[in-house]
Amino acid sequence: MPVQPESPAEEVRHLRRCISDLVSLLALPATWTGGRPSQIVSNSLDALVSMLSLDFAYARLKDSSGGAFSQMVRVGSGWGTKPQPEDFGEKLQHWVEGDFQKLPSVATDFFGAPAITLVPLLLGLHGEIGIIVAGSQRLDFPRQTEKLVLSVAVNQAAIGLQESGLLSAQMLVTKELDQRVAERTAELAASNEELRKEIAERKSVEKKLRQEEAGLKRTEAYKAAILDSSLDCIVAMDHDGCITEFNPAAERTFGFQRNDVIGKHLGDVIVPTHLRERHRAGFVRHLATGESTVLGRRIEMTALCADGKEIPVELAITRIVEDGPPSFTGFLRDITERKRNEDALLVAHANLARSEERWRLVFENSAVGVVLADFNGRLLAANPVFQKMMGYTEDELKQFTFIDITVEDDRDFNRALIVELIQGKREQFQLEKRYWRKDGSLVWVRNSVSIVRGIERSPGFLLALSEDVTERRRAEEALNETRSELAHIARVTALSTLTASIAHEINQPLSGIVTNASTCLRMLDATPPNVEGARETARRTIRDGNRASEVTTRLRALFSKKTAAFELFDLNDSVKEVVALSVSELQRDRIVLQLELAADLPHVLGDRTQIQQVVLNLLRNGWDAMSLVEDRPRTLLIKTECEEGGGARLSVKDSGAGIDPEIEKKLFQAFQTTKTDGMGIGLSVSRSIVDRHQGRLWAVRNDGPGATFLFSIPPGTNT
Amino acid sequence: MTDGQGKNSIQEPLVVVVVDDDESVRESLPDLLKEFGFTVLAFSSADEFLASKSIDRTTCLVLDIVMPGMSGLDLQAELRNRGRKIPIIFITAQKDESVRKRVLAQGAVDVLLKPFSDTALRKALSKAMGED
After folding, report:
1. S-S: B114 plus which of A126, A613, A634, B93, CB 3.0-4.6 Å?
2. Smallest Cβ distance to B114: which of A507, A518, A526?
3. How near does any CA of chain A get to the CA of B76, in Å?
């Protein structure tokens, strides 16, 4: 904008004012000594605004470190709002940061002012301290004098700021120095302390080293003693697998000399040839990976001796942990003897186990019941068949004695047999008896009982093989019933036949007698009586009476002289047949029948059926004689023997009541009986049969209870 | 003498035949029958009787059951085969109910068990003669 030329008076006033301002400005730095930069800038800006009647004066100072800056603004009295340095800084961005020589010196719309002239002034030669911008709306701003004042003021401020900067720099250096000295002092103190510690530590280490040295010496001595006196072989090797130690026990066991093997590869000394490759591979693997299948546990293997023999050894290997490469110590023991014992024991055990297994299988798979009981009858074991037979489990059975499960009627007899077994009077016995099953039903069993005597620590027991014969018993009972019915029928039939034949023989003459007598009476009753005819009929009546008498005589003769079917036969076979017919009935009455049949018995001549009747008769007598015996076993012994001078003898021995002395002499007479249900003809008939065979029948008393009946018949040499 | 005997005797003599192997019966029974008023013939066996000419004259047969050779039962059968309807009174010493039933079923008049009474015989004869 064009500048209005000044009047000379006004020009003089302006010059005077300028000189006065310059003097004031030159006095300013004296007040700034030791002052802070903000104070210098503040004073300078205040002075410029007031001297040059500026609208504002703005200053921006660069920080000494060059990063951030501080800014400040002062405004003239006409400025409305309270000035904010940041707002001015933003507005003046272009002038303070750009190449302000090229910028327009007039800013429009500057905080409400339509146009304002801006004069930027550098602080420092190249603005290195900062910049000051002066602004005024006056059209003549800046006049020559004002420019002078502005530049002087800025120079003064720059000098003041430079001096203030130097001062603070000096102070900074001093402070820094002090800090460095303090730091160094602390460092020295610390290193001093460290040194003291180090010295103490070194002393303690030295002491420890000395102790360790002493300890090491002791350990060496111990080690030597252990190595020398150890019963175990101790072999040590280094990480190359070379032997470093081989103690006396090892020398004794393997037969190598210590001096010969030290330094040699272990794998080439006591490892058997066939294991060497494995040994080497395992060792290499261990060194490479640290893995091992042998370290830290007890193993068994074979070792090679100097004489080439291989022996089983027990081995434990320890790895010695050291700073350097590892070394190993092996402890070995010759276990040849132990192995042998173990093997023998194993074989013995295996044999025993096999044997036991076999017997267990026999026990469990037996087709018959197998029961073990102690001598008190307590059941110890029962196999599955017996369990099934009884309906009890084995554990349940173990609660019982065999008596508990036996039917009451069968107990005494069974008990007596067991007692005889235990007393050694018999080796074994067979018995058919009834058991109570768990469900309350009965089972017939055939028991074969034997005794196993205890040996040493193994107690004895009773062994019973038990067979379920219920079905057979039922069949037999049914059969027996049928048989006895048949026998009865046969007897009745035979009797009636006999009766009929006797009746026929007797009735014929009787008929004659009755008829004759009737005729006789009629003749006498007639008129006149036919006396002659009556006499004749009476004569015939007498004759027929005689005939009837003859008939009875003839009948007796017929029976006594009946021609029996004589033949040669085996008495033993006959006895067996009789026994076979009676055995179930004997068992029912709990009679133990024993047979002692002579093997060399000669055949005898006679009526086999009649002799069997005699045997049956004697058997029956003995059997009946024991019917009331309860306090001892009912035993019946049938025995056949060779008679001196040929012939056979049979005896039936019972344990019954014996022979009553009162009837002893009449024993073989008919109608003599001690039985309530007998006719008393058995022995008399038997005797007559034996007599007919030219034999002899007699009886003797036993030493013990009971009696023995015997008969003998001559040998069948001729008819 | 009975009425029956008299009546019969007027017409034709009533012949009673006894067949028994036992001699005492052959001796005693005819005497009793004669006392009853009958004409009596006695034979010791069935064959002997069949061989005789008396068969046509026989009005009643007193026959033993058990005999050697042909038995009483055989004779009964034989007579029936020949168409002879002679009343038969069986006499036997053996009581056998089955035989008794059999012969009665075959038309026998009665079976008398030895020894029998004269009244029992008389009763059987009356029955045989058709007098009941």
Report:
1. B93
2. A507
3. 21
Q: Touching check for A150 and chain B: CB below 8 Å?
A: no
**By the CB < 8 Å criterion, does A548 face chain B?**
no
Q: What is the pLDDT of residue B41?
A: 94
Q: Tens digits of per-residue pLDDT, A15-72?
A: 777 777 777 777 777 777 666 777 888 888 888 888 888 888 988 887 655 556 788 8
- pLDDT value of position A561: 43
The pair of three-digit structure tokens given for residue A305, joined into one six-digit string: 């001796």
DSSP B95-109: --HHHHHHHHHTT-S
Region label for B39, one of left (φ > 0), alpha (ψ between -120 and 50) or beta (otherwise): beta
Q: Using an 8 Å Cβ cutoff, are A695 and A713 in contact?
A: yes
Q: Report chain A residues whose CB lies below 8 A from the CB of B117.
A: 514, 518
Q: How many residues does chain A have?
A: 719
Nearest to B39 by CA among B65, B12, B64: B12
Q: Full-prediction pTM beyond 0.90?
A: no
Query: Residue A580 contacts by C-beta under 8 Å, 6 or more apart in sequence?
Result: none
Quick one: which H or E segment has residue A452?
strand A442-452
Instruction: Count Cβ neighbours within 10 Å for each residue of A123-159 and write b for 16 or more, e otherwise.
Output: bbeebebbbbbbbbbeeebbbebbbebbeebbebbbb
For the stretch A210-268, pLDDT in tens is 888 888 788 788 777 877 887 888 888 888 889 988 988 899 889 999 898 998 988 88
Query: What is residue B39's three-state secondary structure?
Result: strand
Contact A490, A498 (CB under 8 A): no
In this prediction, residue B4 has a pLDDT band, given cuts at 50, 70 and 90, of: very low
Angle value at C-alpha A75, between A70 and A81, nearest 5 degrees: 100
Q: Report the C-alpha gap between A571 and A574 in whole angstroms.
A: 5
This model of the complex carries an ipTM of: 0.80
Answer whether B28 sits within 8 Å of A519, measured CB to CB.
yes
- Contacts with A540 from chain B: Cβ below 8 Å: 24, 27-28
DSSP state of A102: G
Lowest mean pLDDT among A96-100, A304-308, A475-479, A676-680: A676-680
Contact A36, A16 (CB under 8 A): no
Rounded to a whole number of angstroms, the distance between the first and last alpha carbons of chain B is 18
Q: How far apart are CA A552 and CA B21, in angstroms?
A: 19
A513 touches chain B (CB under 8 A): yes
Q: Which residues of B touch A542 (CB under 8 A)?
A: none
pLDDT per position as a tens digit, A548-594: 887 777 666 555 544 556 788 899 988 987 887 777 677 777 888 89
β-pairing, B39-43 vs B58-64, is unpaired
Q: Does A543 contact chain B (CB < 8 Å)?
A: yes
A-B CB pairs within 8 A amount to: 76
- Look at residues A479, A227, A186 and name the one whose alpha carbon lies nearest to residue A329: A227
The torsion of the CA quartet A208, A212, A215, A216, rounded to 10 degrees, works out to -170
pLDDT, tens digit (0-9, with 9 covering 90-100), for A623-669: 888 888 888 888 999 999 998 878 899 999 998 888 877 767 667 65
**What span, in angstroms and rounded, lies between the C-alpha atoms of A560 and A113?**
188
Q: What are phi and psi of A660, to 5 degrees?
A: -70, 120
Of A503, A519, A526, the CB nearest to B93: A503
Who has greater pLDDT, A176 or A714? A714
Q: CA dist A155 to A100, A127, A129, A596, B60, Å?
A: 19, 11, 11, 165, 208
Q: Map tokens 């000295």 to a residue.
A: A181
pLDDT, mean of residues B34-47: 92
Distance CA A454, CA A288 (A): 65
**Strands, DSSP E only, in A572-713?**
591-597, 604-607, 634-642, 648-654, 696-701, 707-713
